[in-house]
């Protein structure tokens, strides 16, 4: 599993406190492996912009107003991070802020008033995970449902990392909970986002996908984060393509999909600029490589971490708030929003 530093992509409240201080939706569901390749559905026909919903973390650093990003970069959808456990089986923003009645709900309303919408991301690297704090699949599904109901969501992202990802019991619980969610919310799009190696998902990732197929989970997008590889040299764009090829093979094998259906059920969540690994940088050129691949194969998702970092550093190397590379404002976002699925 990848290690993270205070560059902090996907950091959540407890670690950030230390680091930073005080429209009908058309769905073509996946099928279980038992159905065979012939029955495999073509993938998600998402609302325009859903497939390219960059992450923004409103709970740390100096986040931009989402509506400012929309005006400057043409973004329509955002993936807002992160919903966590409040210590029990109850979802809150960063594990501490109520789902409704505060600044987070106000941000969602502002995005929708401007003609956009949101995916909500549950999980991340640090903090208390609902997958671990909820003792059963039904309880976990109930926690996810609270988030869905609070925002009338069309799409939900489960960013499964760290201890949640490494525990086989929890992986199964997440799969089973998502199956319940799909049953209760016809048409909802679900993404499962996880780490990867340059050649595709690791053993935990492959196991998670296999569990999904065995359970009959019609997940719309199995998404990998192709960075923090540790000592990797060479093009991060090509490394991303290699990781996605491996992901496609894993999903195709588990679900019995042909190549086209497998591609349509995978996605990528990259990182813009310098990553957590010393010497590892994802450039705008790498993003263009991934864009071409996504368009060629009709991926379920092409997004990145994070809008917060999509600007040049004004001073120093505050990589939680800037990309660490020379760029114009929202240069990465302007590439990603060219993808419509």
Task: Write down the overall mean pLDDT.
Answer: 88
CATH superfamily: Glycosidases
Q: In CATH's first tier, which class applies?
A: Alpha Beta
CATH topology: TIM Barrel
Strand segment tally: 11
Oligomeric grouping of the chains:
single chain
Rg to the nearest angstrom?
A: 18 Å
Low-confidence stretches: 1-43
Largest sheet: 9 strands, mixed
Which strand-content bin applies to the residues?
15-25%
- What is the overall shape? globular
| N to C succession of SSEs | HEHEEHEHHEHHEHEHHEEEHEH
Helix content: 25-40%
Number of helices: 12
- What CATH architecture do you see? Alpha-Beta Barrel
Write the layout of secondary structure elements.
Elements: H1 13-20, E1 55-57, H2 66-73, E2 77-85, E3 91-93, H3 103-113, E4 117-123, H4 130-133, H5 137-151, E5 155-159, H6 162-166, H7 168-184, E6 189-195, H8 203-215, E7 221-225, H9 236-255, H10 259-263, E8 266-271, E9 273-274, E10 281-282, H11 284-297, E11 301-305, H12 331-336
Parallel strand pairs: 1-2, 2-4, 4-5, 5-6, 6-7, 7-8, 8-11
Antiparallel strand pairs: 2-3, 9-10
Could you characterize the architecture of this molecule?
The protein is an alpha/beta fold. It has one domain (24-336): TIM Barrel (Alpha-Beta Barrel). It is 37% helix and 16% strand. Strands 1, 2, 3, 4, 5, 6, 7, 8 and 11 form a nine-stranded mixed sheet that branches. It has a two-stranded antiparallel ribbon with strand order 9-10. Strand 9 (273-274) and strand 10 (281-282) form a beta hairpin. Helix 7 (168-184) runs parallel beside helix 8 (203-215), helix 8 runs parallel beside helix 9 (236-255) and helix 9 runs parallel beside helix 11. The model is unreliable at 1-43 (pLDDT under 50).
């Amino acid at each position: 599993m990848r290690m993270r530093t205070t560059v902090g992509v996907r950091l959540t409240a407890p670690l950030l406190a230390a680091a930073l201080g005080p429209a009908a939706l058309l769905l073509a569901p996946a099928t279980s492996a038992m159905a065979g390749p012939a029955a495999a559905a073509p993938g998600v026909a998402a609302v325009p912009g859903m497939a390219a919903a960059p992450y923004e973390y409103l709970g740390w650093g100096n986040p931009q107003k989402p509506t400012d990003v929309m005006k400057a970069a043409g973004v329509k959808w955002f993936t807002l991070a992160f919903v966590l456990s409040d210590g029990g089986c109850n979802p809150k923003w960063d594990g501490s802020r109520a789902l409704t009645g505060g600044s987070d709900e106000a941000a969602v309303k502002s995005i929708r008033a401007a003609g956009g919408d949101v995916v909500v991301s549950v999980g991340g690297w640090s903090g208390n995970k609902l997958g671990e704090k909820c003792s059963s699949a039904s309880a976990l599904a109930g926690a996810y449902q609270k988030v869905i109901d609070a925002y009338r969501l069309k799409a939900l992202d489960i960013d499964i990392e760290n201890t949640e990802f490494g525990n086989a019991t929890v992986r199964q619980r997440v799969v089973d909970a998502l199956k319940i969610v799909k049953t209760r919310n016809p048409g909802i799009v679900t993404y499962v986002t996880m780490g990867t190696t340059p050649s595709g998902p690791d053993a935990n990732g492959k196991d998670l996908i296999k569990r999904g197929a065995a359970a009959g989970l019609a997940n719309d997008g199995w998404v990998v984060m192709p960075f923090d590889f540790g000592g990797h040299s060479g093009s991060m764009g090509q490394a991303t393509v290699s990781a996605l090829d491996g992901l496609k093979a894993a999903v195709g094998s588990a679900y019995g999909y042909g190549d086209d259906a497998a591609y349509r059920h995978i996605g990528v969540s990259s990182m813009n600029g310098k990553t957590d690994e010393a010497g590892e940088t994802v450039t705008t050129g790498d993003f263009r490589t991934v864009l071409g691949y996504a368009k060629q194969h009709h991926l379920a998702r092409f997004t990145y971490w994070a809008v917060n970092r999509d600007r040049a550093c004004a001073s120093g190397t505050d990589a939680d708030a800037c990309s660490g590379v020379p760029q114009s404002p929202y240069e990465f976002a302007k590439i990603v929003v060219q993808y419509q699925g």
